[in-house]
Amino acid sequence: MRELFTKLGRQVEQFKQDVDAAAAENADYECPACKARFVVDHEECPNCGSAEIAPREPTQEPG
Ligand SMILES: [Zn+2]
Q1: How many CB atoms lie within 10 A of CB 53?
Q2: Tens of pLDDT along 20-52?
Q3: Ligand 1 mean position to 60 CA, how many Å?
Q4: Does the pLDDT at position 18 exceed 90?
Q5: What is the CA(13)–ligand 1 centre distance, in A?
Q6: pTM (2 d.p.)
């Protein structure tokens, strides 16, 4: 049964990557230390542990 779990694990991993990519598009917060983006504010960065999660500025198109 271990092979089944390995296969499921890969699918879950791919799903997580897709979700992360989609979330980054809509992220309102960013960790200045590691540039990780978050949809919700965190007290500290889950990625690097920094306590400085900052709201992102809306991106403006040049022109
Ligand atoms: Zn970070």
Answers
A1: 20
A2: 666 667 889 999 999 999 888 899 999 999 999
A3: 24
A4: no
A5: 21
A6: 0.54
Beta-sheet pairing, 37-38 with 29-30? antiparallel
Query: Hey, what amino acid is at 35?
Result: K
- Supply the pLDDT for residue 13: 86
SS3 of 11-52: HHHHHHHHHHHHHHHCCCEECCCCCCEECCCCCCCCCCCCCC
Q: State in Å: Cα 33 to ligand 1 middle.
A: 5
Question: In the block, which residue shows the tokens 């990625």?
Answer: 47
Half-sphere exposure of 27 (CA within 13 A, CB side): 20
